[in-house]
Specification:
By secondary structure, this protein is of the alpha+beta class. The protein has two domains: 1-98, no CATH class; 101-151. It is built from four helices and five strands; from the N terminus they run H-E-E-E-E-E-H-H-H. It has helices at 7-20, 108-119, 124-131, 135-155; strands at residues 24-32, 35-42, 58-71, 74-86, 92-94. Strand 4 (74-86) and strand 5 (92-94) form a beta hairpin. The longest helix has 21 residues, at 135-155. It starts with 6 loop residues before the first helix and ends with a helix. The structure holds zinc ion. The site of zinc ion has 7 residues, from loops.
Protein backbone atom coordinates (compact mmCIF):
# COMPACT_ATOMS: atom_id res chain seq x y z
CA UNK A 1 0.00 0.00 0.00
CA UNK A 2 1.27 3.43 -0.93
CA UNK A 3 1.88 5.84 1.88
CA UNK A 4 2.56 8.90 -0.24
CA UNK A 5 0.18 11.68 0.59
CA UNK A 6 -0.62 14.37 -1.94
CA UNK A 7 0.85 17.72 -0.87
CA UNK A 8 -2.60 19.29 -1.31
CA UNK A 9 -4.02 16.72 1.10
CA UNK A 10 -1.35 17.58 3.65
CA UNK A 11 -2.19 21.27 3.30
CA UNK A 12 -5.85 20.43 3.81
CA UNK A 13 -5.06 18.51 6.98
CA UNK A 14 -2.99 21.40 8.27
CA UNK A 15 -5.90 23.77 7.70
CA UNK A 16 -8.23 21.28 9.29
CA UNK A 17 -6.00 21.13 12.33
CA UNK A 18 -5.96 24.90 12.62
CA UNK A 19 -9.70 24.86 13.19
CA UNK A 20 -9.27 22.14 15.83
CA UNK A 21 -6.47 23.91 17.54
CA UNK A 22 -5.79 27.61 16.93
CA UNK A 23 -3.52 27.65 19.99
CA UNK A 24 -1.10 25.10 18.56
CA UNK A 25 1.00 24.92 15.45
CA UNK A 26 2.48 21.99 13.54
CA UNK A 27 6.26 21.99 13.80
CA UNK A 28 6.91 18.61 12.21
CA UNK A 29 5.10 15.81 10.44
CA UNK A 30 5.86 12.24 9.51
CA UNK A 31 4.08 9.67 7.41
CA UNK A 32 4.60 6.04 8.33
CA UNK A 33 2.76 3.25 6.54
CA UNK A 34 -0.88 4.24 6.98
CA UNK A 35 -0.26 6.74 9.77
CA UNK A 36 0.25 10.50 9.81
CA UNK A 37 2.07 11.87 12.83
CA UNK A 38 1.81 15.60 13.48
CA UNK A 39 3.95 17.28 16.12
CA UNK A 40 2.27 20.24 17.80
CA UNK A 41 3.73 23.04 19.80
CA UNK A 42 1.82 25.73 21.67
CA UNK A 43 1.55 29.27 20.28
CA UNK A 44 0.37 30.98 23.43
CA UNK A 45 1.28 30.96 27.12
CA UNK A 46 -0.58 28.36 29.15
CA UNK A 47 -3.33 29.03 31.67
CA UNK A 48 -3.00 27.88 35.24
CA UNK A 49 -5.41 24.94 35.79
CA UNK A 50 -6.16 26.22 39.28
CA UNK A 51 -6.70 30.01 39.06
CA UNK A 52 -7.14 30.29 35.28
CA UNK A 53 -4.59 33.09 34.88
CA UNK A 54 -2.18 33.07 31.96
CA UNK A 55 1.37 32.48 33.07
CA UNK A 56 4.75 32.14 31.37
CA UNK A 57 6.26 30.20 34.25
CA UNK A 58 6.76 26.71 32.89
CA UNK A 59 7.73 23.91 35.26
CA UNK A 60 8.33 21.20 32.65
CA UNK A 61 7.05 19.63 29.43
CA UNK A 62 5.88 16.28 28.33
CA UNK A 63 4.51 14.85 25.11
CA UNK A 64 1.04 13.38 24.90
CA UNK A 65 0.19 11.28 21.85
CA UNK A 66 -3.47 11.18 20.92
CA UNK A 67 -5.34 9.75 17.99
CA UNK A 68 -7.52 12.09 15.98
CA UNK A 69 -10.15 11.21 13.38
CA UNK A 70 -8.75 9.60 10.25
CA UNK A 71 -7.75 11.69 7.29
CA UNK A 72 -7.91 10.40 3.69
CA UNK A 73 -7.63 6.81 4.93
CA UNK A 74 -4.69 7.54 7.22
CA UNK A 75 -4.75 7.21 10.98
CA UNK A 76 -3.83 10.58 12.47
CA UNK A 77 -1.71 10.83 15.60
CA UNK A 78 -1.09 14.17 17.26
CA UNK A 79 2.02 14.56 19.39
CA UNK A 80 1.02 17.37 21.70
CA UNK A 81 3.59 19.24 23.74
CA UNK A 82 1.94 19.72 27.12
CA UNK A 83 3.26 22.12 29.74
CA UNK A 84 3.17 22.03 33.50
CA UNK A 85 2.93 25.52 34.92
CA UNK A 86 4.35 26.79 38.16
CA UNK A 87 1.88 29.57 38.84
CA UNK A 88 2.41 32.43 41.32
CA UNK A 89 -0.87 31.27 42.95
CA UNK A 90 1.06 28.24 44.22
CA UNK A 91 -0.30 25.72 41.78
CA UNK A 92 1.96 23.34 39.89
CA UNK A 93 -0.24 21.65 37.35
CA UNK A 94 -0.80 20.65 33.75
CA UNK A 95 -2.36 23.08 31.34
CA UNK A 96 -5.71 22.11 29.86
CA UNK A 97 -6.17 21.68 26.14
CA UNK A 98 -9.66 22.62 24.90
CA UNK A 99 -10.03 19.62 22.61
CA UNK A 100 -8.52 17.06 25.01
CA UNK A 101 -11.05 17.22 27.81
CA UNK A 102 -11.09 13.53 28.53
CA UNK A 103 -8.17 11.61 29.97
CA UNK A 104 -8.03 9.40 26.93
CA UNK A 105 -5.61 8.66 24.12
CA UNK A 106 -8.02 10.17 21.59
CA UNK A 107 -9.23 13.71 20.87
CA UNK A 108 -12.68 14.92 21.91
CA UNK A 109 -13.84 14.93 18.30
CA UNK A 110 -12.75 11.28 17.96
CA UNK A 111 -14.85 10.55 21.06
CA UNK A 112 -17.81 12.33 19.46
CA UNK A 113 -17.33 10.46 16.19
CA UNK A 114 -17.17 7.04 17.89
CA UNK A 115 -20.25 7.89 19.93
CA UNK A 116 -22.15 8.99 16.82
CA UNK A 117 -21.43 5.58 15.24
CA UNK A 118 -22.68 3.85 18.41
CA UNK A 119 -25.77 6.06 18.41
CA UNK A 120 -26.49 5.02 14.82
CA UNK A 121 -26.85 1.43 16.05
CA UNK A 122 -23.39 -0.03 15.41
CA UNK A 123 -22.15 -2.48 18.04
CA UNK A 124 -19.14 -1.83 20.24
CA UNK A 125 -17.20 -4.53 18.34
CA UNK A 126 -18.09 -3.05 14.94
CA UNK A 127 -17.01 0.46 15.96
CA UNK A 128 -13.83 -0.91 17.50
CA UNK A 129 -13.00 -2.71 14.23
CA UNK A 130 -13.89 0.21 11.98
CA UNK A 131 -11.90 2.81 13.94
CA UNK A 132 -9.15 0.35 14.95
CA UNK A 133 -9.49 1.40 18.57
CA UNK A 134 -9.52 -0.84 21.66
CA UNK A 135 -12.77 -2.60 22.39
CA UNK A 136 -12.50 -1.54 26.06
CA UNK A 137 -12.23 2.11 25.07
CA UNK A 138 -15.28 1.93 22.79
CA UNK A 139 -17.19 0.10 25.52
CA UNK A 140 -16.37 2.93 27.93
CA UNK A 141 -17.49 5.57 25.40
CA UNK A 142 -20.73 3.69 24.93
CA UNK A 143 -21.39 3.62 28.68
CA UNK A 144 -20.75 7.38 28.89
CA UNK A 145 -23.09 7.94 25.95
CA UNK A 146 -25.87 5.85 27.51
CA UNK A 147 -25.41 7.53 30.89
CA UNK A 148 -25.57 11.05 29.43
CA UNK A 149 -28.70 9.99 27.51
CA UNK A 150 -30.32 8.90 30.77
CA UNK A 151 -29.38 12.15 32.50
CA UNK A 152 -30.89 14.14 29.65
CA UNK A 153 -34.12 12.14 29.79
CA UNK A 154 -34.41 12.70 33.52
CA UNK A 155 -33.98 16.46 33.22
CA UNK A 156 -36.65 16.70 30.52
CA UNK A 157 -40.06 17.77 31.87
ZN1 LIG B 1 -2.64 29.89 39.33
Amino acid sequence: MSSILEPSAVAKEFNYLKTLSPKQTIVDSRIEQNEIHLFLEPLVDPQCPSCGKTTNRIHDFHERVVRDIDFEGFKVFLHVKMRRVRCPCGCVGRERIDWLGKRLRITDRMVAYAQSLLASGMTVSAVSRQLKLDWDLIKKLNLWRLRSGLTQQKSEP
